[in-house]
């Protein structure tokens, strides 16, 4: 029996339902820092001390280091925390003193549980506190990752299943000598010129698309289906995926073009025995979208809002709209929301009140919820004095 059969279909996680809006109060920071000093994942001698990329998966409310051999590989049923630390400034001379800057991402798979998503969000803030509030925080959704996140993984691979799903993945199925029918969809990175994404999709012919390349692993043989409009880069990545399979399993490989009559064999294995392969237009929505597929007006959109309780009540007001927005429009006594293209940035001033700082995620999520039908939007947060390059690029765009 194929490893995906016999399972209850997973519920797609809706991030709007997550109960994480009360994080980020002053007492919350103190509690999280105290907790962070006892969190083994953060106390490995490298976090906050050395540049690099560090990935963790949430497993039963625990933060578990993800094997480096699997960096760039994520499961749609899980939540992950990714820390990217890099040195900036000058080692010597009259420039800025060299120091580490940090970007922390919590990545939510399409079918992750609310417990996992909430833990990832909570632990992301805890990690930021461990880094003394110096990190830029990013909330990433599987279906609409930010360009900054995609830039970390030129070869991104998203697999089905996860730690809570009871899913038997193909490697485990092979060890048990069960039937394998795994379909991988390969397509160009949205927004990254040289990047490629590999996503495991349900092995049915309706998931085929003429713009992409697909690899079907049947255990004893691997098949490659090249859509009529696929890119050369996608063909190259498919060759790499197949090479990995053949090295591990020593299986035969057959490559088929969509325009070949023999491609009917490939479609037939996916349940399309009666499909007219030469007369059918294969089209399926991509499981990962990018701003390049959105509307031009959304790409160029730029608005700045102020979140302030200076008048006693928490207010959310438009400050400025358009390209004239600049650094001087930010006031360290408040929190600001900057909608710049496909990203909503939250900037927290050093003098912002605890109430303003506590409500940033809820307000940003509510704003994105109203805009989500127009184009994919990611959320990121920067703190005054610890802004990332990406934030200043968004301000000055």
From TrEMBL:
GO biological process annotation, one example = actin polymerization or depolymerization
Ranges for domain Gelsolin-like come to 67-150, 198-246
**What SUPFAM superfamilies does UniProt report for this protein, alphabetically?**
Actin depolymerizing proteins
Recorded coiled-coil stretches: none
Query: Which InterPro entries does the UniProt record give?
Result: ADF-H/Gelsolin-like_dom_sf (IPR029006), Gelsolin-like_dom (IPR007123), Villin/Gelsolin (IPR007122)
Q: What's in the GO CC field?
A: actin cytoskeleton; cytoplasm
Single GO MF descriptor: actin filament binding
Q: What is this protein called?
A: Gelsolin-like domain-containing protein
């Amino acid at each position: 029996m194929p490893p995906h059969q016999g399972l209850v279909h997973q519920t797609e996680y809706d991030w709007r339902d997550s109960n994480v809006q009360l994080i980020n109060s002053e007492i919350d920071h103190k509690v999280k820092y105290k907790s962070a000093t006892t969190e083994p994942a953060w106390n490995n001698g490298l976090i906050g001390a050395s540049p690099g990329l560090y990935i963790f998966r949430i497993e039963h409310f625990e933060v578990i280091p993800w094997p480096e051999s699997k960096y760039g590989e994520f499961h749609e049923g899980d939540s992950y925390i990714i820390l990217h630390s890099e040195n900036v400034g000058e080692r010597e001379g009259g420039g800025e003193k060299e120091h580490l800057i940090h970007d922390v991402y919590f990545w939510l798979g399409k079918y992750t549980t609310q417990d996992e998503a909430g833990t990832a969000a909570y632990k992301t803030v805890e990690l930021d506190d461990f880094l003394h509030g110096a990190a830029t925080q990013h909330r990433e959704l599987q279906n609409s990752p930010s360009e900054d996140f995609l830039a970390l993984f030129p070869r991104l691979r998203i697999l089905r299943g996860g730690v809570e799903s009871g899913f038997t993945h193909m490697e485990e199925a092979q060890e048990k000598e069960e039937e394998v029918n795994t379909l991988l969809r390969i397509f160009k990175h949205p927004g990254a010129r040289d990047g490629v994404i590999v996503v495991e999709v349900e092995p049915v012919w309706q998931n085929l698309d003429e713009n992409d390349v697909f690899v079907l692993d049947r255990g004893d043989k691997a098949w490659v289906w090249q859509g009529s409009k696929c890119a050369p880069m996608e063909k190259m990545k498919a060759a790499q995926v197949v090479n990995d399979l053949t090295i591990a399993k020593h299986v035969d490989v057959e490559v088929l073009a969509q325009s070949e009559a023999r491609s009917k064999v490939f479609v037939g294995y996916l349940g399309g025995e009666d499909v007219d392969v030469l007369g059918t237009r294969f089209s399926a929505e991509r499981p990962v979208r990018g701003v390049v597929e959105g509307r031009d007006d959304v790409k160029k959109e730029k608005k700045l809002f102020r979140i302030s309780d200076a008048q006693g009540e928490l207010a959310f007001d438009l400050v400025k709209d358009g390209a004239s927005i600049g650094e001087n429009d930010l006031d360290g006594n408040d929190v600001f929301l900057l909608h710049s293209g496909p990203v909503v940035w939250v900037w927290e001033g050093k003098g912002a009140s605890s109430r303003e700082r506590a409500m940033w995620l809820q307000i940003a999520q509510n704003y994105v919820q109203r805009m989500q039908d127009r184009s994919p939007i990611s959320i990121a947060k920067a703190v005054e004095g610890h802004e990332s390059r990406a934030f200043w690029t968004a301000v000055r765009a």
